[in-house]
Write a structure and sequence with these properties.
About 50% of the residues lie in helices and about 15% in strands. It is an alpha+beta fold. The chain has one domain. A six-stranded mixed sheet has the order 6-7-1-10-11-12. A hairpin with a 2-residue loop joins strand 2 and strand 3.
């Protein structure tokens, strides 16, 4: 067992180290506003991926998002398309993990498993790609992506918790059937675990794995491109769903629902929706926890676990002003990715902990067996392997925003909007006379300039894509845009 496991570990250790270094560099680029540098960094990796690369999906997710904020929309479409191609087999058909993979994670660690994307990854990738396609005027393809997001949400409802529970049952059965696996005192382990995962206790999920940003985007799409009353019904349903999930958004949604009631298909009143993507999503860090292992004279073994950390560095407000809006409109909370990602992680945590403890127990038992059969040299080999192969899986999509916020204004006749957090961010151009979406990304509170994607909701090209908004002549933002 050990020779094969050692070979698997050598590969996984290199991949995990490369991923962590890559992730840190991408985050640093984004936080400093170096959007093009982040896109180049991710593109180089994405172009080098093999068909069987176990980390491919997480790298492609980063490539898709960084290309989007850098204004490289065609590249973003390509990378998000590759994400879909790689995860599509798991929609309704293929099991998320094989028995062979489960055995490998037990022998080595969970970093040797294929990264397939979480439900929130899959849904958000499709929705962000819909934004890309809207910016290119490819309306029918954008509709397909929004439908894919809905398919992944339904798939999560049908299978996510059930598959976790099934895998947890298989892991526990494997432990019970393995005569070499020593029993681990559960109470001692639980006390150690609880001390590190308490920040997840108060997180509450949105209903049915939903992401209110995606639902709102679907509502805007259905309203703006309504061909018949059925599309208006879809918009009405989507906006009501968001209102139920995120009460703070309700004042903004009143106007959306009034627009649905007053609209005729294909002729909504020109409106500009501003999505503010602020901060960066959670990260996973590795910690070591001593686990009591009653195997011969082996008393404790360190097990590695991923712990979730939430990034406090983000702008908590956005104001959007035009000449007609006076002091401007304050954005309201729309979707909290900390909640969405954190709840998914919490759901998987019992499986992660059980697999890691079983892995530690089996390695300890193997080390004891090596000592009994080969003496101190065998024990040294076992201890070395334990130390080298103990690693937590910290892969996750880091360039997602921490929060989505929403502002809504009538499209200004002069096509000029001023945006500000606690400081002026500049002026954004939108197309007068039509509805628009503006997506403003600010990865950290002090990121020098935001990325802005301005999209007229028509079959025409975007006004501007992922560029810093232009400052006013004196660097200040005033409601009249002058």
């Amino acid at each position: 067992m050990l020779p094969l496991a050692a070979a698997a570990f050598v590969v996984s250790a290199g991949c995990q180290s490369s991923y962590r270094d890559h992730s840190k560099a991408v985050v640093a680029d984004l936080e400093t506003g170096s959007y093009a540098a982040a896109a180049v960094r991710c593109r180089r990796v994405a172009e080098s991926l093999d068909d069987d690369d176990i980390d491919a999906v997480v790298y492609l997710l980063e490539a898709g998002r960084t290309a989007q904020v850098a204004g490289e929309i065609d590249s973003s479409v390509r990378w998000f398309g590759e994400v879909h191609d790689r995860v599509r087999p798991y929609l309704d058909t293929e099991a998320e993990a094989s028995l062979t993979e489960g055995a490998a994670t037990t022998i080595v660690n969970q970093t040797v498993s294929m990264y397939r994307g979480t439900p929130s990854d899959r849904m958000l990738a499709a929705a962000l790609n819909a934004v890309n396609l809207l910016s290119l005027g490819e309306i029918d393809d954008a509709r397909v992506e929004l439908n894919r997001a809905a398919d992944w949400q339904q798939d999560a409802v049908n299978r996510f918790r059930k598959e976790i529970e099934a895998e947890l049952d298989r892991t526990r059965e494997a432990a019970d059937d393995d005569d070499e696996a020593p029993d681990v005192p559960a109470k001692v382990v639980d006390e150690q675990i609880d001390a590190h995962f308490g920040n997840l206790d108060d997180l509450t999920a949105y209903s049915d794995y939903a992401n209110p940003f995606i639902d709102h985007l679907r509502g805007v799409f259905s309203l703006t491109f309504a061909a018949d009353e059925g599309d208006l019904d879809k918009a009405r349903f989507a906006f009501r769903q968001v209102a139920a999930m995120e009460p703070e958004t309700q004042p903004m949604l009143v106007a959306d629902l009034e627009a649905v009631e007053g609209a005729s298909p294909g002729r909504p009143s020109p409106t500009t929706w501003i999505y503010f993507l602020t901060g960066l999503g959670p990260r996973l860090e590795q910690i070591y926890i001593p686990v009591p292992i009653p195997a011969g004279n082996v008393n404790f073994v360190s097990a590695a676990f991923p712990v979730m950390k939430f990034d406090p560095d983000f702008a908590a407000s956005l104001t959007v002003a035009s000449g007609a809006e006076g002091d401007g409109v304050a954005a309201v909370p729309l979707a909290d990715m900390d909640r969405i990602v954190g709840v998914e992680f919490r759901d998987r945590l019992p499986l992660i902990i059980t697999q890691e403890i079983l892995s530690a127990a089996l390695k300890a038992a193997a080390t004891y067996g090596l000592r009994e059969n080969f003496g101190p040299l065998g024990q040294l080999v076992g201890i070395g392997y334990q130390a080298a192969s103990t690693a937590a899986d910290t892969r996750m999509w880091r360039s997602v925003p921490k929060r989505f916020m929403l502002a809504r204004v009538p499209t200004p006749p002069d096509g000029r909007l001023a945006i500000a957090t606690d400081r002026p961010l500049g002026e954004v151009s939108v197309e007068p006379g039509v509805s628009n979406i503006v997506m403003v990304t600010l990865p950290a509170a002090d990121t020098p300039t935001p990325s802005v994607l301005s999209i007229p909701l028509s079959d025409r090209a975007p006004v501007q894509a992922a560029v810093a908004p232009s400052p006013t002549s004196d660097g200040k933002i005033r409601p009249d845009g002058s």
